[in-house]
What we know:
This protein is α/β, with parallel strands linked by helices.
Amino acid sequence: MQTTTETTFPRLLLAHAGQRPEAPALREKEYGIWQTLNWADLAKLVEQIALGLHAAGLAQHEHVVIIGSNRPRLYATMLAVQSLRAIAVPLYQDAVSTECVFPINNAEVRFAIVEDQEQVDKLLELRETCPQLAHIYFDDKRGLSNYSEPGLASLQSLMDTGEALAQREPGKFRDLVDATQVSDVAAMFFTSGTTGNPKGVVHTHGTLLDRSMAGAKFDKLTSNEEVFAYLPPAWIGQNIFSYAMWLACGFVVNCPESAATGMIDLKEIGPTYYFAPPRVFEGLLTSVMIRMEDASALKRKLFHSFMAVAKKVGPALMDGKPVSALDRVLYKLGDLLVFGPLRNNLGLSRVRVAYTAGEAIGPDLFTFYRSIGVNLKQLYGSTETAVFVCLQPDNAVKADTVGVPIEGVEIKVAQNGEILVRSAGLLKGYYKNPAATAEVLTADGWYHTSDAGFLDAQGHLKIIDRVKDVGRIMGGNNDGAMFAPKYVENKLKFFPYIKEAVALGDKRDRVCVMINIDFDAVGNWAERHNLPYAGYTDLAQKPQVYQLIKECVEKVNADLSVDALLAGSQISRFLILHKELDADDGELTRTNKVRRGYISEKYQILVDALYGDKTEQFIDIQVRFEDGRTGSVSATLKIEDTKVFTPVKAAA
């Protein structure tokens, strides 16, 4: 592994290709068979694409849009772009065409390399609004043979041009790579744009590699790791774990065949280093619980009995703490009969280190995975910090913190509770937005995270919520009590029947919640209880489903009642939304984070009903379908009161 950040991504590529040419670099599953690309072949592929782009006129410091799933040729394209001292701009492959207009025009993009016909069609739609977009290259040619748009060509044709140039000038590519500099801008990542146009976060080779190498050193990563790349490359979390750290460490990155085969592919690979946002771990747990409900009575009893043992001693064993001999024997038996097969079924049997980030994970969900022997840890960071700020050390993991500041990071807490960070991994700035840059970066190099939290006595960072989201209950029995909506939402989402939750309560006299049920989990429950339904909207409003969700909400209230800080955040009323929250409808970001402010405005009629003591409310909402058409979904939603518990401290 490289031990200095005085290098660039293309130089690391050539170092791996020179030192271990036959070692696997990338794997891709195609037609059910894993195909391996070694470092030498990857270097050749990057050379062809880079020289092809050079011949096509790509200049230094130009931006190149890259759109698609994790694919070896798209990884090679990022390296090729950076080899020319140009800037890679990955965009979300599931974004609608209009979401691409601002990034393309803001970065004055002339070149785009995309995965397939879907992405080609998306960009061709934009040519009137993005007239400078002159060159579009595609990797997968299926469905594109009859296209004759100007500037549209296959990636293979670009590679053929590059190969011809390589034959004429054999040393050209190495000269280009040698000219790359640590201070060159390597990539630009656009934020989700929850409060306006997205901002382009500018990162250099130095900032991305500094944090990647610090993270790799922290967890003693080597070239022997196996990584599973399945999240959008446009998200910096995926980009750091499967691109920057890949080149820093030289491990193997595995690309699944498709989203539909992801779970099968994950099991076949058995990654040793795994990264997923909380929603992925929530989904895995939900699938386990659904399967267990369908299992025989004996298997269910076995599962729940040993899970009780796991919950009691699993985290202690993971952290190397003393456990009684009897509990140790029971846990080993549980590992043989339940935990081991469960880890294998989830594809996590070989995981040495697993991380979650992107948003807060519920403590119950976090503890579940550590209980069954998965070394799941939390990290703290953001797009602007090149991800790695705090990591949890082995044997010192806490469910309610995000770890300690790692090498090269300074942290301080402002008077308003905001976390400030200083490190060599901070963004260079927001592209063409000096005002926004000045808002988050101080003159002496501190970055304003907008997160509220504090460092505990052991130096672990605890995040409460976004500074702007932490509020107070005003009036009622809990006047002045702290309200942390994300904390409440995460406790609700631990239950397999709840997919999303939006908690309201700041400057109000009580907490109310809007809930999305998990259609698969609740649908499975309904079928087992002989409850017929005709789609999501119908199922969500069934009285039996309301009772099911009410039990979950009241369990959360019972847990909150023993929390000295957040006992006042217990939920008084809730409703179940008649549609699933969707990024295409603006309700979620492209990384599936709830846009709470937008939802509160869009569903104002429901908010008023919750706080107006109504028992039901009719709503008609416009929705956008995958093919771009719009329609509406309407329903009369029930509103349910819940039991609120006396805080334990007050009772004492």
